[in-house]
Design a protein that fits this description.
The complex is a heterodimer.
Chain A: H1 2-26, H2 29-54, H3 62-78, H4 83-100, H5 102-107, H6 110-130, H7 132-135, E1 141-142, H8 152-175, H9 177-187, H10 189-194, H11 199-225, E2 227-228, H12 235-247, H13 253-269, H14 277-290, H15 296-308
Antiparallel strand pairs in A: 1-2
Chain B: E1 2-11, E2 14-24, E3 29-34, H1 40-47, E4 55-60, E5 63-64, H2 70-76, E6 78-81, H3 93-99, H4 108-121, H5 123-127, H6 138-150, E7 156-160, H7 168-183, E8 187-191, H8 195-201, E9 204-209, E10 212-218, H9 219-224, H10 226-233
Parallel strand pairs in B: 3-8, 3-9, 6-7, 7-8
Antiparallel strand pairs in B: 1-2, 1-4, 4-5, 9-10
Helix pairs in contact in B: 3-6
Chain lengths: 317, 235
């Protein structure tokens, strides 16, 4: 039984990617687009797995990283660079700018860091809104070259293949020495420092990796939509990405991919409900969070400590 | 091996260490005693680089430690078991121990052998290697904290109140382990509230009082005179 469970845990990622691979052949154009967006979001959310799940640095500004990747791609293209080169430089730009956010994270943690990331997100959005000559402002940015309609299918196959590699790499990272160091930083910075973990370097690495994936996601987004507007990068988008990370299991890249596709698709699935759509959407999420998915082992392990350190009576209800 | 001379350290403007000098010879157990706020923990933090040294020098085997980063100091062979154990509660016992060797790029076989060595030293941890560290008792967490520190094969092991909040039986076990570790060739710098116990196993003792060394000498001599202990440690 346990062997089967481990097998399942190891290989789910291949099953998920295989299922995603057959999507374009069996669905309508519209459903296919939803899946494309889901896979594109998965890259960003897996970046958040590294940042939030592994390293414990909460963020509510992830839409900004996405925006930087997308806009950078569009702007470089419009400046006359070839699309492939633009994509590469756009990912580099997003990584560089995103990594800057590691510097406030040296000193800040918890809610203070969250507020900083919210600020970063808002500043980015407002800059995009007001730098009209560069970004098109409220009109949005369009007219840059994108992958043609006929090639969309192949772009999607490429994205899923890359997603598989990213998931495997991030999972490996989580089990590696460096991943362990990131998890140590999340749990106790002083202890991690005493063990010889260079805290600042670890934080920079986490931000760099997560903004790299966000930038990549942004470039894909720009190609899928052909149009970018500051409205797609608001704080509530960031909250949705956080939700996807949490529902995927926080530090589980495969789960993150599944929840990204699922939550991207959910509002579309519920479209037949018209006005009560958002209510049912929220309800579905609440129910999901309340159900304890395979947590039995965890609960059994926590019990002995509860006996060791008695809590004040009636403290929990 | 370790020589601190005239060290000043302070939190912002308040000085904690007022010119401390002490020496830890190789292969010995040296203990630091003193009342709360005497500056024992601060001394350890200054040695391991968690707190910047103000003035003075900390020399370890001929190299200056003051102004170095904690990871450099770990690499030089000093391991710090911090006060309050500070294990990683959400990681398993094995993972906690593995993190101890973060800076030593062991091969897989070396890592395994070194981990088995810790499990041999602390059989209790071997039984619980897959358990989350946060779910263990205080004594087990203390053992884990020491095992984790030993993974970097330190020349000097610094222990900050390993008996804190533990049952007397467990304290005896921990103390036995410390002497065992020392016999295997690791130099130990020990902070203890339990003066009697610390003096019994150490070779040399320093008594700290408000940020400076009030008294030092062979542990056997210091232990003999109850009145000295009572005066500095408040009985």
């Amino acid at each position: 039984m346990k062997g089967m469970k481990n097998f399942f845990r190891e290989y789910t990622v291949f099953i998920v990617c295989a299922l995603l691979m057959v999507v374009p052949s069996i669905t309508s154009q519209y459903v296919f687009y939803v899946f494309e967006r889901g896979v594109q979001n998965a890259f960003l959310v897996i970046g958040l797995v590294i940042l939030i799940g592994y390293s414990g640095m909460m963020t509510l500004g992830s839409a900004a990283h996405l925006a930087i990747g997308g806009y950078a791609y569009g702007i470089y293209c419009l400046l006359g660079l070839p699309p492939v080169l633009s994509a590469a430089i756009a990912v580099a730009t997003a990584t560089l700018l995103g990594t800057l956010l590691a510097f406030p994270a040296f000193k800040l943690s918890g809610p203070f860091l969250v507020v900083t990331t919210v600020g970063f997100g808002e500043i980015t959005r407002i800059l995009i809104l007001n730098l009209q000559s560069l970004t098109g402002g409220a009109y949005g940015l369009s007219g840059y070259p994108v992958v043609s309609q006929a090639m969309q299918k192949y772009l999607y196959y490429g994205m899923v293949a890359l997603l598989l590699l990213v998931i495997l790499a991030v999972r490996r990272l989580g089990r590696s020495r460096i991943g362990l160091a990131l998890k140590a930083v999340r749990q106790d910075q002083v202890a991690a420092e005493v063990m010889g973990v260079h805290i600042k370097r670890a934080k920079v690495a986490a931000y760099a990796l997560s903004s790299l994936l966000a930038g990549l996601s942004g470039v894909f987004l720009a190609n899928l939509t052909g149009y970018l507007s500051p409205d797609s990068f608001t704080g509530s988008e960031s909250a949705t990405y956080l939700l996807m990370t949490v529902m995927g299991g926080m530090s589980n890249p495969t789960g993150a991919a599944v929840s990204s596709v699922g939550i991207t698709a959910l509002p579309e699935v519920l479209r037949f409900l018209y006005s009560s759509r958002l209510m049912v959407y929220s309800l579905a999420l609440l129910i999901y969070i309340r159900v304890k998915w395979g947590r039995k082992r965890r609960v059994a392990l926590v019990k002995p400590s509860a006996q060791g350190a008695p809590k004040p009576k009636g403290g929990e209800s | 091996m370790l020589k601190i001379s005239d060290l000043y350290v302070g939190y912002t403007s308040v000085p904690v260490l007022n010119g401390i000098s002490l020496e830890v010879p190789e292969g010995k157990i040296v203990t630091m005693l003193g009342a709360n706020g005497a500056g024992k923990s601060t001394t350890l933090k200054a040695i391991s680089g968690l707190m910047p040294a103000g003035f003075g020098s900390i020399r370890f085997g001929g190299a200056e430690l003051a102004g170095r980063r904690p990871d450099e100091i770990v690499r030089m062979g000093i391991a710090h078991v911090p006060e309050g154990r500070l294990v990683f509660p959400g990681l398993t016992v094995s993972e906690n121990i593995r993190i101890g060797s973060y800076l030593c790029k062991y091969s897989k076989a070396e890592l395994k052998r070194n981990m088995e060595h810790q499990f041999a030293l602390f059989p209790r941890l071997a039984e619980r290697r897959g358990q989350l560290a946060g779910t263990m008792s205080g004594g087990e967490q203390q053992m884990l904290s020491i095992a984790r520190a030993l993974m970097s094969k330190p020349k000097l092991l610094m222990l900050d109140e390993p008996s804190l909040g533990l049952a007397p039986v467990i304290i005896d076990q921990i103390i036995d382990k410390i002497t065992e570790i020392n016999r295997e060739g690791t130099t130990v710098l020990l902070i203890e509230q339990n003066a009697e116990l610390a003096l019994a196993i150490s070779d040399w003792a320093y008594i700290l009082s408000v940020g400076s060394v009030a008294l030092s000498g062979p542990s056997s001599e210091i232990g003999r005179d109850r009145s000295i202990l009572d005066a500095y440690l408040g009985g």
